[in-house]
Amino acid sequence: MGPVARFFDSDLWYSFSRSPLTVVSAVVALALIGGAVFAPVLAPHNPFDLATLDLMDAFNPPAWMEGGTARFLFGTDDQGRDVLSTIMYGARISLFVGFCSVLFAMTLGVTIGLVAGFVGGTTDAVLMRIADIKLTFPAILVALLVDGLVRAALPRELHDRIALWVVIFAIGISNWVQYARTVRGSTLVEKNKEYVMAARVIGLSPARIMTRHVLPNVMGPVLVIATLNLGFAILAEATLSFLGVGVPPTQPSLGTLIRIGNDFLFSGEWWITVFPGITLALMVLSVNLLGDWLRDALNPKLR
Questions:
Q1: By the 8 A CB rule, do 91 and 35 touch?
Q2: Could you tell me if residue 253 is left (phi over 0), alpha (psi between -120 and 50 degrees) or otherwise beta?
Q3: Where mainly found (predicted)?
Q4: Is residue 246 part of a domain?
Q5: What CATH number is given to the structural domain containing 186?
Q6: Residue 156: which domain range?
Q7: Is residue 124 part of a domain?
Q8: Residue 230 contacts by C-beta under 8 Å, 6 or more apart in sequence?
């Protein structure tokens, strides 16, 4: 039986297929991610091609409203850009920031948790006290602080070029504690098991034992945390961009689109901010629902 057949015969697939809400969430998440990844092919217009923009098309309402046109299904913004196309391109940036920041936070947190749990002693105490201090500050506040410090330390001409990576670093550095504490707890249990003792007896180095033997056995909860944190990372990026300290206007994410549309919300052009807002809400909700399902599906007490 091949790996694909084993997957469809597994408890995980059975749990997934028996949950209609999870199936719908997966379909919505895949549709949004697919639309974002293949935006250059699927988007009706390229909102960043200035040669195709016409200010005479600005503030066109959605196609089903009076004055709307089929060319712009969700209407246009103040610069004449197709709102549907800007959402698809903006979602690419939001997802890129979300995935990269989660990967960075997971790598940092798993490394710290693995070292703290396996080495123990003073190393464990110091690393966990740093984690405790980090937990006293809200994640979004830490992200704002890191973003501000990096921008203040670097020349102004570099801000737009590295703004995307600064946001990824700021969000990632504010979310590593969950991974570290979870991996540390699992490592404390795993390091006293017989397979670890056997590896020590045959002379394997601590680094090899941690990476080749302990790490694969503590990654289950980490994947659940990563799935749940993806939604938070996307929302954190949108918050930073809405506040004007996220990605630059030349690379607008969903948060930037919502901020731009917010300026015209009360003048009647509601579609400029409402449709990006709905997209952001659906993206975060579907990812969080998938994370909740994965947490329950991997919990042996609920099987």
A1: yes
A2: beta
A3: membrane
A4: yes
A5: 1.10.3720.10
A6: 39-302
A7: yes
A8: 98, 99, 102, 287, 291
